[in-house]
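Q&A FORM
Asked by: J.P.
Topic: structure of Na+/H+-dicarboxylate symporter

PROVIDED:
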Amino acid sequence: MKALKHPALQIGFGAIAGLIFGLVVGEWAANLKFIGDMFIRLIQMSIVPLVLASVIVATASMSGAGTGRIAFRTVKWMLGFAVVAAVLAWGLSVLIRPGAGMVFDGELDPTLEDEAGQTTGWQDTLLNFVSKNVFEAMSTATMVPIIIFALLFGVALRMQITKSGDDRVLTFIDQIQQIILTMIRLVMYIAPIGVFCLLASLAGDVGLSVVTTAVKYLGTTALGVAILFVLFVVVVTARTRLNPARLPGKLAEQTTIAITTTSSAVTFPTVLKNTVEKIGVSQKIANFTLSIGLTMGSYGAVLNYMIVVMFLAQAGNVELSVGDIALGMGLAILLNMGTITVPGGFPVIATFLATSLDLPLEAVGILIAVDWFAGIFRTFLNVNGDTFVAMLVANADDEIDRDVYNDKKTVVSEEIDVSEYSGAFARADDAD
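REPLIED BY: S.T.
REPLY: Here is the structure written out as tokens.
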């Protein structure tokens, strides 16, 4: 009975019930659409203040700690694989077109059609990234100028804190962020009802194509995860010259926990233990790289978020420009890097991406409905990708004990204080 109280399970039940109801009653289910739209709007109204506060807090909280050779190598590999994940997601989405077949004609904002005909050069595109009035950008939910403003504000706030030692403004903005998060948690209590209504109206409108598009979306995500995983193995094998045939057995335990819990936070202690005791990475490298990986190593999330962008564009029959695609990749990577912290689960992230790129929100319901399955794929790659990056970073400094990897030697990892990672755990679970 306790399992029935889990939010993800309740949303899953709501999604399945909504699909069945919509397919049975047909077009009448459109009468429920306003309830689902209200649920989405309740999320949308929190996006702008949440992103503004989150980026400021994340930027202003940064200090000079953690720099150096190991940090550079860690970030280099993580950022590099994140870029590859975003590009791969775009390529697979163009080939497979997971959102095709569920087109919402006439449902877009009328201004989007006018904007599509006004082609601008790259100079104007970059110029529009900076708003003359940040309050105007906030009123229209134009996300990129808001993010630019928040980044600059955060940097300036960090300089002021360093100069004066007064962090009251940062504390105040952090409290605003926490209040908005509480608002989102309250909204998520009605998520099962909202998702039921969204899926019912969607299924009643487009019929069984809802199911086929969901399968194509999950299939695209699964294929991308498989390709990235193979790429990780190839790169690690080429750099370390370790036998890849030993990897499945060494990753089995953490993989099992990852896909059954869909939580990088729950899996973290096992990943840290196995990376030291089974892979042979030194404790120093493992502690640093894996803790950074909790917030910056969500390669499965980057892949999935970019597929979401392409899915929504295809479902809404929106032609994305090169600039739009680049912006989508940038937002997916920024979400991964922890610069934009959008907690509250996948519904908030999907809504944020759609709002940022002026994409139709009608298809968000189907993505929410199958997100538990997508979360399995994301977490699998997030967790194992961190281990691979730790191997690459350790190899550069000869910090891999090859006897441990080849099962000729036994070492014991240090115990960790889980409470020290509470913040990172929360951000990692948001990415999962």
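FOLLOW-UP: Confidence is low (pLDDT under 50) at residues 105-122.
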